[in-house]
Amino acid sequence: MKRRPEALSQELFDLVVIGGGMHGAACALDAAQRGLKVALLERGDFCGATSANSFKVVHGGMRYLQHADVARLRGSARARRAYLKIAPHLVRPLPILVPTYGRLGLKSKFALRTAFALYDALTPDRNRGISDPARKIPPGSFLSAREFKDLHPELATEALTGAGIFHDGQFINPPRLVLAFVRSAAALGAVIVNHMSAMELHRDGNAVTGVGAVDQITGQKWDIRTRWVVNAAGPYAEALLKDTLDIDLDPPGTYSRDAWFMVNRPLVGERQAVTVPGRSRDGDALASRGARHLFLVPWRGATLIGVWHKVYNGPPDDYTVTEEELKGWLDEVNEAYPSLSLKVEDVSRTHAGLVPFAHDGGNGSTLQFAHRSRFIDHADTQGVDGLTTVIGVRMTSAVPDAIEIVDLVQKRLQGRATDSVLERSALYGGDFDTFDTLLKEAVQRVPSHLSHHALEALVTSHGTAYTEVIDLIKAGSDGAEFLHGTHVLEAEIIQAVRNEMATTLTDVVFRRTVLCATAPPSDAALNRTAEIMAMELGWDSTRTRAEVAAVWECLAQPLSGRLLLAQVDSR
To answer: What pLDDT is attached to residue 565?
Structure first.
């Protein structure tokens, strides 16, 4: 996949998608699979904003039992099934333990057993088409009090009667997942360009007919002709409409700054998440166990803790997480599980992103969430043809949302919608039967110096496309060595530049590789990465130093979705 901005001006597109997060990438792929001529524009890098800050949980709909929202429950289970089927290297089941208390009431095993049975009955097709047994969602199950205490003695209380286990999914690597959608679309002929800002929407009368864009790398301007535009810019979508067409949404969007933090050590084991009773309540729930659940989620040897919601009405780039808020969250977790004794210095990273929200009751304790993504057909709302806006409610919903959007576009352009194959066609790197079989095959093909852990990391990131990385090594590229202190091969950096449209050092460090997944890289690893990119892209020493400085600047943003200053200073 090469970066080819010149292709943007060479033809009339059926569809231009603005925004390269999960929703935009899914829309581009679904449209390309249906035979439309597609272009995708991303002002920064793919999965560089809201999608990058995902809590990494693929919601399967269990919580919507509390709202008696069967349609939403089944839709979420369908979306989870799609991810597990089409990207089995990048998505896996996530078992979640829910402690139970007392013999009766909504916190009891009896109530949870009833909920699990109802959920299982409502989702009999939750594993349809999934070939890998390790990617299938099992029915709900239970642990005794003793079994739970053996697993988590630090979380046990006298009132504990055991725990229920249900499964959601987990995004193992959201940026690589978005990239898999993007590469799949490119393989079908879509023109994909990152670091390309949409600055204008051109109109002819009441119809949008094109996009004016600026290449953030070269400064060159491009005029792109299209029959339809999907504005999938997430929390930036409203500003794009206002700045380009002077359109205000009615009503204007209400957003939540959804935030979570990372502790860079395992708190609940390696694979099972555990719920935490929080202080807020879900105001829409018809049946509630009391406090809204927070989650302790294992991920890459660290623990993700969240999510906290707060209505935010400012510019999308200006939200922050304050140290006072972080202390309050730690108090909330410690109140539920005092033995954890978490402190600010235990937190290695905070993340936050903006998603549609309803309201918080004015005091932050009773929350009402947006139930679905927001779709605006501007022909209906402002009389502007050829333009649709989607603001995704969460990363999980991107696949079904994309199908709905492309259905609309096809009906308007061609009179009818053809069947989507998005939910059943393997993404780039995802075409294999079982992950274990793929891993065993890789053992026979890769250099002998790769440990099992390093090999598993490579195959997880790339799926069947791990062979592209190995082929670079075999072809004589200087890529057989690991970057200092990591399991990232130098060949992965070369692959990112040559075949994955990585243009800046931040692209590689934060999104193409796991160099910054849980902690900052060493100076040696970062400098070597920059050196490889300089050789590939012809950077001089001044440009190379600037690229390294840009990475440390991102890492040093305190409490705003990157690492805390204290962690960076300790490098």
So the answer is: 31
